[in-house]
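Box 3.1 A note on notation
Throughout this textbook, protein chains are presented in two layers. The first layer is the amino acid sequence; the second is a token string describing backbone geometry. Keep the layers aligned when reading.
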Amino acid sequence: MTRTHSLASLHAAIAALLVFSASAVARPEVTVRVAVAPTIERLLAEQDTDHDGLITVADTGNRLFEVRSVDGSSLLVEGTYPLGNLLQELGCGKRLGLAEVDIAAPALFRDPASHVSYMIRTRYWDWLTRTVDASGLSRIVEDPKLAGQPARVYVPHDDPVALAYYTQIAKQKPALKLEVIALPEKVTPQFVRSINAKPGILSLAMRQDAGAAGGMSGAPFVVPGGRFNEMYGWDSYFMALGLLADDRVDLARAMVDNFVYQIEHYGKILNANRTYYLTRSQPPFLTSMARAVYEKLPRDDESRAWLARALRAAVREYETVWTAEPRLTKTGLSRYFGSGLGLPPEVEPGHFAPLLRPLAAKAGLSEAEFERQFSEGTLQSPELDALLLHDRAMRESGHDTSYRMLGRAADLNTVALNALLYKYEADLEAVIEAEFGGRLDLGNGKFSESTTWAERAAERREKMMALMWDDGRSLFFDYDFVHDRRTTDVSATTLYPLWAGMLDQQKGQRLARAALLALEEPGGIVAGTEDSRGALGADRPPRQWDYPFGWAPHQIIAWGALERAGMHEEARRIAYRWVYMIAMNGARFNGAIVEKYDVVRRSIDASAEYGNVGARFRLVPEGGFGWTNASYQIGIGMLNESERESLGRLVPPEWIFGDTRR
């Protein structure tokens, strides 16, 4: 199939399909004060015809509503999109506990692209911000993953200050029912399994704060949203980029501080700060994150000291996690490898049923009894152990799940991980040379030289080009070091080496063009090709990191890769496709921003495995979804004036008036 790639043709197609007349709906320059609760009740009763707590294109009937002011005046609002915006404004007021709110009529008709950006910048970042301290622990108590469980905070053995702080808070706030538990010096898979029945949050960085309870406050962080109410590894990098795009430098810096704390006290950047993630990391982005934040800081001794601490943590992570056993392999390249015992406790009930069913039958047990005994360690199953070895590695990769990695993740030197480690090496070389005179003091009489990192980067590049680069196809592929062969699955991760700066412009453009030909879809970059995914069926269900789904981190990496290759128009085109899709779906579905999209159909109907976080809410999105928010703010910032104007005209009449009016 031939693809049309020019921005001009894309804009023309959109203009033809989505004609919007500025005179279609009146936009009076008025503001009315309304009572929140009764207006929500009446609005839903009249306009929410499918009773889902939202106003979307799925609702039918007359799209006309009278907003009644508390002073007796009124405002008529017509159309699905502005009515959805009205419900969002009322929902924000309800969230803040307000009895009345001012509704500015022009805000209800703000163009969808600007509206999404406005909500992210002014509302969602704050709604997704958390702290593990006296003021923030109540959010942990409310977490649905802890339903019926006491609130527990686990503290590293070498942080007595934090232990004393949480112990004091537990006494001062008995209503929290807080349990404070010190971790042992050595955290083993056996220990982690032993506390799976007593899950809890892991403490993060604290700051002296005379105005806070206990004289300290937690370094804030942003959570992805929905059921993800903790600080995640690679999500945090992309969210930090979004925060920086919105000038939230202090919050992005605090997230780096939390990563440094994790390396210093837990030995790694955790999959997330929950007890069941103590033996698992996630894709490494610390040097990229620290550099991005440092670029926004003043050039003074304090900032350089902050950067030096972050780099020391990155060196430790690189040497003790990613280039040490069991993640270092015989090729000299690295793999993902999450150690652990039993089934990953964070998965939803029934996720492993297809694996457990035949094994339970063979053992003469019910699935539930087989799972219980296996999880407790009283039943051994080497076959299941082997499958779970790969499952944990896949989860550490962040790509859980994908047919590219199912059943073999621990056998792979992945393109993504090794490109990220090349980026660590290149970053450490560049920053140590530029900011620390070529020599970083690691403490205890040890130093790290920029020349060492240059040598490591060159060595990794040589190995990756030899094992992962397919010169005939101009793409990178994961390498199976157990069977000594390159895999054949085409994934969005093929662009990581270009993003990391590993290729010269000529080879980078070859890769970029081949990747776009394989992976570009109407809504952006797809996670992998349909051929690589293979046929689906009753015994082979869809996996969320495969075709036809697209994810924010892959888009951001792709944009950066294309920019590296000097393909600026192509980068903007892909960004436009993604931003357009998000804004379009936001206009259709009450402002919804979700964790993933079907980029082939440009749809939020992308339920696979765990559903689609962010799609279910009432009144107003509960913060959108972290890295999707970030990708939107970054992506819209890449566009030129003409492209932004095009986005401002994307609401067609049927989204305003519904199917009952033409």
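The first helix runs from residue 7 to 17. Residues 353-413 form one domain.
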